[in-house]
Amino acid sequence: MKKPFNILYFLIIAAAMVSCNNGNGNDSKNKKGQGGLSTNAAERVYVAPGEHDEYYGFFSGGYTGNLTVYGLPSGRMFKEIPVFSQFPTNGYGYSEETKPMLNTSFGFVPWDDSHHPDISQTNGKLDGRWIFINGNNTPRIARIGLETFETEEIIEIPNSAGNHSSSFITENTEYVVAGTRFSVPVPQKDMSIKDYKGNFKGALTFISVDQDTGRMGIKFQLMMPGFNYDLSHPGRDKSHGWFFFTTYNTEEAHSLLEVNASQNDKDFIAAINWKKIEEYVNNGGGTKVPAKYAHNVYSDENHTATSTMIDEVLSVNPLDVPGAVYFLPTPKSPHGCDVDPTGEYIVGNGKLSADLTVHSFTKMLDAIENERFDGEAYGIPILNFEDILAGVVKQPGLGPLHTEFDDKGNAYTTFFISSEVVKWKVGTWEVLDRQPVFYSVGHGMIPGGNSREPFGEYFVAMNKITKDRYLPTGPELEHSAQLFDITGDKMELLLDFPTHGEPHYAAAIPADIVAKNSKKIYKLSENEHPYATLSSADAKVERNGKDVHIYMSMIRSHFTPDNIEGIKVGDKVYFHVTNHEQDFDVPHGFAVIGANNSELLIMPGQTKTLVWEPKRVGVWPFYCTDFCSALHQEMQGYVRVSPADSNIELSWSLGED
Amino acid sequence: MKKAGIIMIIGSLLLLGLFKFPLWNIMLGAPQYPDPLGMDIYIEGIQGVEEFDIQNIDGLNHYIGMRPIPKVEDMWEFEVFPLVIGTMVALGVIIGLLGFLGKLSYKWFLGWFVLMSILGILGMYDFNLWLIDYGTNLDPKAIMKLENLDGTPMTYKPPLLGYQKMLNFDVDSWPGTGAYMIFLGMILTLVAFFVGKNESKKAV
Question: b/e for A349-368, b at 16 or more Cβ within 10 A?
Answer without folding.
Answer: bbbbbbbbbbbbbebbeebb
